[in-house]
Each structure stands twice: as C-alpha cells, then as structure tokens.
Design a protein that fits this description.
With 863 residues, the protein is mostly helical. The chain has three domains: 182 residues, no CATH class; 88 residues; 384 residues, Orthogonal Bundle (Catalytic domain of cyclic nucleotide phosphodiesterase 4b2b), CATH 1.10.1300.10. It contains 32 helices and six strands. It has a five-stranded mixed β-sheet with strand order 2-5-6-3-4. A hairpin with a 3-residue loop joins strand 5 and strand 6. Helix 1 packs across helix 3. It comes from Cladocopium goreaui.
C-alpha cells in the first residue's frame, strides 16, 4: 500500500521483541496483563487531564505582577542573604534557614506553575534548567543540611587539607547556584519579554535575536566566573599555618617545660594582636595536668568569644584545645562574594543592553524600513490599478481621436498586466495564508473513517548555486559503467525492462537480487559520483542488516522499493538537468537508509509512551532523526564510507541533502510540502504550463530551459529532492494494483501489531490500528483521496513526467472501490456506493484540472 504510509515512527531494534504472527499475537515486552499494572497508565492520563485543567490558572499566577514582584524579592534574598548574614555577624542561622527554606519553596512553586502553565515553551528550556539548578543550590546554604566539622587535629595536617577542600567545593556549589539565578534577571531587560502578536515581524525577529544573544552572553559570563576557581580546586590549599604552630608550641611547652607554660601562652597570644583573627580561648583536656598548666588554664581573650558559631574554628592536640575567632576573614569573604555578584550582574545587564542596541540598529531599524516600503509599494500597486482603470475610461470617453484610442489601448494593457500581477499575488497569499490543504472545517465534515486515514498517516492520536558539471569532468566512463551494471543485473536473473518500469516488487525478489538492484540504482552512471564498488557493497549489506527483518512494512524490501522509486523519478524527470551529481547521489543513498532501524511503531506511539527516542529528540521526528543518525554512523565506518571520494565541501553538501530529505519523510511534513509545491507552480505558472506543453510534444523526458533554470535555484532544488524521496516513500498506491495491494496488506498488518500493543498498554489506539474495525479497501480509497492525490496533483504541474503515476493512482482507486463493494464484511448500501463513486469522480475532475484541460479524459481508461 502506500501508506508509509500511514506510519512514521518506531522504536530501536534493541528495545522490541520480534512482532508476533498475525493469527495469535503474543504480548509485547511492554504489554501489561493485569489490571493492577494498567493503573499507572490510567494515572498518567489523569495527570495529563489535570495539567490541562490547571494550565490557565497557572499562567494567570505567573503573569500576576505581585507574584513576579515576590519572586524578584525571593531572588534577591537567595543571592545576598547568606553573605549578609555573615557580615551582620548574626549569632546563628536559624532565622536564615527559615528564610531560605521559604525562598526554596517559592522557587519550587514557581518552577511547578510555569511547567504546568507554559508546558511547551518553558519545560526543559534554558530558564527551566537555570531555575532548577538555582533552587537545588539553596540546599548548600542551609546549615541543617551542610555541616562541616571544624575541629581540626593539630598534628593531622592532611585532615585539615581535606576539610578545607570540602568547604571550598561546598562554597563553589552554592555560588554556582546563585549565579544561575542571575539569568532570571534577563527577563526584565528591554526586548527580552514576550512580544505581542501585533508588534510586527521586525520586532518579533529582533526580540528573538536579543533573547538568544543575551542568554548566551550571560551564560558565558557565569561559566567563566564559575569555572575559573576550578583550576585551583585540586591544588594544595593556601592557608595560614599559624594556628597549627600556636598549638604545637604550646603542646611542646606543656610536655617539656610546664613551668614556662604561662609565659609562653602570653607571648604567643600577643602575636595575634595585629591579626584579623585571634585565639579567644585555650582549654585543657579532661585529664591530670601539672599545677603550672592548671593555674594558667582556661585562658580567655579579653575580646570574648565570636558571636557566630561558624566563626569559631577549633584546633586540638593531645592535651590542649584552642579556639580561634575567624569573624573578620569570613566577613571579608562575604563582602567579596557580594561584590562578585554585583559585578556579574553589571556585566550581564551591560552586555545584554549593548547587544539589544546593536540588534536594534543592525536588524530592527533596517527591517522596519524595508517592511514599510513593502507595505507602501503594495498599497500603491493596488491603488494604481484602480486609478489607471478610471483614467483610461474617462480618456476613452472624452477623446475619440485615433491617437487617444491607441494610447488608451496601450494604457489598458499596462493596467491588465498589473491586475494580473495582483491576482497572482492574491493566489499565492491564499495558498500560504488562508488555510491548510485539509483544515479543521474540512476534517470536521469528513466521516470518521476518512479522518482516521489522515490521522493514521501522520502518526497522530485521534483526540475528541548550480553548476552544470558534466560526466566528462568527473573523469568517469559512464558508458562502460552502465554496461557493466547492466551485465550484473542480467547475470542476477533480472531484466532491465523490469528495472526500468514500475512493475518491480522487491517483496518478490530474493536477497541477492535485491542487493544487485540496489547496487544498480546507486551506480555512478545514474548520478556521476565516483565511489568504490566494494565499499558500496559493504554499505548496502550493513544497511540491510540495520533494518528490522520482523517489521511487516518498514523493512529492507521497503528501502529497496523506495530507492527504486527515486531512481525512476530522477530518470523520468530528467533530473540531471537541474540537480547536481552530488544531490542525485545523496537522495539515492538517503532512500537506502531513510527507514533504517524502523521497527514498525510510529512517532505518535513513541511520544505517547515517552520512549527514549522521543525524549532524546524532544518529540520532534524522533524516528527520522534516528534514521539520519544511524545512516551517518554507518558511513562513519571506513569499510562503508561511500562518501570517502568526496571533497570536504562536497561531503557537507551531500550530508545536508541526506539529512533534509530523510527528515522530510516524516509525514507531519506532508501538507506543508504540498503547499510549497503549489507555491512554486503559482509563482511561475506560465513557465510551467509552457514546459508541460513541450514535454507532451517530445518523446524523451525534457523541460523548457526556463523551467530548468527555475529548478536550478537552491531552494527549488531542495524542494524537488525532498519531494522525490517523499513521493517515492508513499508511491505504493501509484503502482500497478497487484503490487499496490501487496504493500497495503503489509502496512496494515504493521498498524495492527502496533494497535495490539496500544490496547495492551492502555494507551489510545491510533487510527487504522484496530484490526477488528478497519475496512482495508475503504481505508485505501481515503488514503489516496486525502493524502496521495493532493501531492501527486501538485507535483505533476512542475514535473509533468509524474502524470502517469496519477493515472495509475486513480485506476487503483477504482479497483479498491470494486473490492470494497464485493469483499466487505458488511455489504455497503446503495447510498454509500454512490457517495464513494462521487468522491472518486471528484478526484478524476481534479486530475483533469491539473492537466489544464490539455489531455483527453480517455487517458484515464488506459492500462
């Protein structure tokens, strides 16, 4: 069938068991059998509904000015309170702990309400991670969580070093968290807030640029401030060893000369009179001491003990305990921390403002002037058309002279030309601005089965510089290569007549013949790029191994089938006239790997089950991103590096084409691609119509030179490459009905296997996945009508060689109609038959319209 069709997702091979037989499917490894194990899934659905219900209230809280003011004050408290507490020399941290705990609760609450209210824009964004890191770092400022033992053994120097290093790490962690909170200040800068929808394109672009540049500059400043201390983190700590010397001298005096202990104590304590820290108490341990020592101890400094216990540092020896007051050094350190915070804030704000002004002067003002001129010019054109028509009519009435009549005719031609331009602009505007190919209103009017086809195709869950480089320049003997490739094909038991037709079905070929066919499609004579044939053979063999053999549809046979479709389209559409060698090579090998690793479960399933691939790629085309990654992992091996003969520039060009083309096989891109093709036609409709007439008059594939020049433009080449691979990917319903029906059964079986898994997991069963309710022939008619026909009808306007695909597609629709009428479980009523017949007639009329009335209707009847 055609339905890549309808699925565009899956899991890595390693995470799934082989799909079970269709008759009696055993449970998947993810399936759940008991009601108890289904409860978490039900709970997830309930949480999702609860989040949707709470989202409006959370957004209201976040946008409330009083809440924003409270969070700003909490931010300032988190930044400065720990250091201010040290400077103010508070006795303990009990009040500070209460305040910081409240601030931490506010931060957690803020993260929660923003994650619920702005789930798509805030969750996992830059500010989200900054908020989480900042809130977590508050734990390092809470004294009841981080307590360092400050009693240091006088003889255990290594223990002292370890404690100092641990203290330094804790301070660095707390400081890092405070710095990350500074990033939130960027929200209050000019241009960093949300821009209203009516602000204009220029201001919107300027706001996004300012936000991106400012956040990156702020991160750079914060990282520099945080990373610089790391270079000294593991160095031997610089410290004053005088406290250790103090207690060592006293201990030695105690042991050897007890009579001199009092004198020695007085002399040593006098040493600290000029220091910012000093010993304030000397005590003896609980044991028998000499009388001289007992009389001298305990000794207390006249300055008294420190107010804050964290300023009290204790040193011990075998017989003595000495306590130091480090209030002044700790206060100095706190002052330095505050100054550092202020400097970082000033740097962040200053550079962000400078960037804002730069963006405004470089981007905003010129862009506003340009858009203003565009609006004025458009207004002038529309007004001029009306004014000139009025003037023309008035002059024709007042002046009947022959010269005036002739001038009026010329003037009328000018007016008609302008009117035609305006009409063209109106058509283009309608395509881009008015409504999508299938808008909500159209979907609402469709039957449930037809809506299921569209939803299933997109993998969603139903919810109520061209250079003409010839082959001679490449130094390749294309004729010899082609003869060798043809001989290889014939020796494998294939015929060139089959290869060069749409009757090739890889499902009917063995492994060796499919390998030969793939080698022929990727051969140099089809694109002009030289490569090592042994390396290409290794690449194709490893690519085949990368596909999941048990997947009913997305397997190696589908890859060969898609590659054949790309080969045929490049051949029939004379792509060598407007696509470079490297681009044709890239799109062919992209077809080989466009579904590598696909196990038959689509993107919607991955997202719904929070699979690892969906989490890795943020729910954005997880499968297609995985296919690209696996392809270039394969090419990264020397034995499979089919791009090794390319220059660095050519390799980057090829890689860009491969990634772009494979990502556009995500069926979520389907309708936007149709719009792009329609736009390309409408902008140059006269050119394409003339080119189509030339194509119909010639026996060989050809296009008008003007059309070739248009297709050589970079954006148009990229569109054609993406269109070629995507059309080939879903081309099954445009092939002979015998082949189309085989593929249809394959893809539907893959859907049903996924549907069985969804039912067991308790997640919503996606459209077309219920084997008990889907009408197979009817689903194919809907697939052709709503999805394939809009694409091929648009494509045939710029690539007229694809017209015969549309003809075969319409013939297949009639065949599916007959099978639906004859083989349905429940015979359709006459009214249902009439309705489906009218739908197919409508498609046939659209086909004739796309032909611009130049082909007879009888062409639909040919075989």
């Amino acid at each position: 069938m055609t339905l890549k069709a309808l699925s565009h997702g899956g899991w890595p091979k390693s995470s799934l068991p082989p799909p079970p037989p269709a008759e009696d499917p055993p449970p998947l490894s993810l399936s759940v059998e008991s009601e108890e194990s289904q409860k978490p899934q039900d709970m997830d659905g309930s949480l999702h509904q609860l989040r949707k219900a709470l989202a409006p209230y959370c957004r209201q809280i976040v946008n409330n000015r009083y809440f924003q003011l409270a969070m700003f004050l909490a931010l300032l408290m988190a930044l400065f309170l720990p250091d201010l507490w040290v400077i103010l020399n508070q006795a303990d941290n009990s009040v500070l702990d209460v305040l910081l705990t409240l601030v931490g609760v506010l931060f957690v609450f803020e993260v929660s309400v923003q994650s619920i209210g702005m789930h798509k824009t805030y969750l996992y964004s830059f500010f989200f991670w900054m908020d989480v890191l900042g809130a977590a770092s508050l734990l390092l400022d809470l004294s009841y969580i981080t307590q360092l033992d400050q009693e240091v053994g006088g003889d255990d120097v290594s223990n002292n070093v370890i404690i100092m290093r641990a203290a330094r790490i804790a301070k660095l962690g707390a400081r890092a968290g405070r710095f990350t909170k500074l990033a939130k200040l960027l929200r209050f800068l000019p241009g960093m807030g949300n821009v209203d929808d009516g602000a204009g394109t220029a201001k919107l672009i300027s706001s996004k640029l300012i936000t991106a540049l400012s956040t990156r500059t702020s991160c750079l400043i914060i990282l520099l401030v945080m990373i610089m201390p790391l270079f000294n983190l593991w160095a031997y700590p610089e410290e004053d060893w005088s406290p250790n010397s103090f207690i060592n001298i006293l201990e030695a005096c105690y042991m050897r000369y007890p009579a001199r202990f009092q004198q020695q104590l007085t002399e040593i304590t006098a040493f600290y009179d000029q220091k910012s820290y000093h010993p304030w108490r000397v005590r003896a341990r609980n044991m028998q001491h000499p009388v001289e020592v007992t009389n001298a101890l305990p000794w207390n400094s006249p300055n008294g003990p420190p107010t804050r216990m964290s300023n009290n540092v204790v040193f011990t020896s075998d017989h003595l305990i000495v306590e130091f007051n480090f209030m002044s050094p700790n206060q100095l350190d706190a002052w330095m921390n505050i100054i550092l915070l202020l400097i970082v804030m000033i740097l962040m704000i200053a550079f962000s403002l400078i960037l804002s002004q730069s963006v405004s002067s470089i981007v905003l003002k010129p862009l506003e002037q340009l858009l203003t001129q565009v609006r004025q010019m458009a207004s002038t054109i529309f007004q001029s058309v009306t004014d000139m028509e009025v003037v023309m009519k008035e002059e024709a009435k007042d002046d009947r002279s022959e010269e005036s009549v002739e001038d009026a005719k010329k003037f009328g031609n000018e007016t008609q030309l302008l009117a035609k331009v305006v009409q063209k602009l109106a058509v283009i505007s309608e395509i881009t601005m008015n409504k999508p190919v299938l808008d909500a209103q159209t979907l609402q009017n469709l039957a449930e089965g037809d809506r299921a086809v569209i939803s299933g195709f997109q993998g969603t869950i139903q919810d109520t510089e061209f250079a003409d480089r010839g082959d001679v320049e490449n130094g390749l003997d294309m004729e010899a290569i082609e003869l060798a490739q043809r001989a290889m094909v014939e020796n494998a038991g294939l015929s060139m007549e089959l290869i060069d037709s749409w009757n090739l079905n890889p499902l009917e070929l063995d492994k060796a013949r499919n390998h030969v066919a793939a080698m022929y499609f990727c051969s140099s004579h089809n694109h002009g790029v030289e490569f090592d044939s042994v390396v290409m053979g290794n690449f194709l063999s490893d690519a085949e191994s990368g596909y999941v053999k048990s997947a009913p549809y997305h397997n190696w046979f589908h890859a060969v089938d898609t590659t054949h479709g790309v080969y045929r389209m490049l051949q029939l559409c004379a792509a060598d006239a407007y696509l470079t060698r490297e681009e044709r090579y890239a799109v062919l090998v992209s077809a080989v790997c466009h579904d590598i690793g696909h196990p038959g479960l689509n993107n919607g399933f991955l997202v719904e089950t929070s699979h690892e691939l969906a989490l890795r790629y943020n729910d954005k085309s997880p499968l297609e991103n995985m296919h690209c990654s696996k392809m270039f992992e394969l090419v990264g091996q020397a034995r499979c590096n089919i791009f090794s003969t390319l220059s660095k520039t050519q390799y980057h060009e090829v890689r860009k084409v491969c990634v772009e083309a494979i990502l556009h096989t995500d069926n979520a891109q389907h309708f936007s691609m149709i719009k792009d093709v329609q736009m390309l036609y409408e902008v140059n409709s006269d050119l394409w119509d003339a080119s189509r007439n030339l194509f119909l008059q010639e026996d060989e594939p050809c296009l008008a030179q003007e059309a070739i020049e248009c297709l050589r433009l970079p954006d148009n080449r990229k569109l054609v490459l993406n269109l070629t691979l995507h059309t080939s990917d879903i081309s099954n319903s445009m092939k002979p009905f015998r082949i189309s029906r085989i593929w249809a059964w394959q893809v539907l079986e893959e859907f049903f296997v996924q549907g069985d898994a969804e039912a067991r997991l308790g997640v919503p069963v996606q459209a077309l996945n219920d084997r008990n309710t889907v009408n197979r022939p009817f689903s194919q008619v809907g697939f052709i009508e709503f999805l394939v026909s809009p694409l091929i009808f648009a494509a045939m306007k710029i690539l007229p060689a694809t017209e015969h695909l549309a003809v075969q597609m319409l013939m297949n629709a009639r065949s599916w109609q007959k099978q639906w009428e004859a083989e349905g479980k429940v015979p359709p009523s006459d009214s249902d038959k009439k309705l489906l017949n009218e739908r197919i007639i409508k498609m046939e009329n659209k086909f004739r319209t796309s032909q611009a009335g130049k082909n007879p209707p009888e062409k639909l009847e040919r075989n």
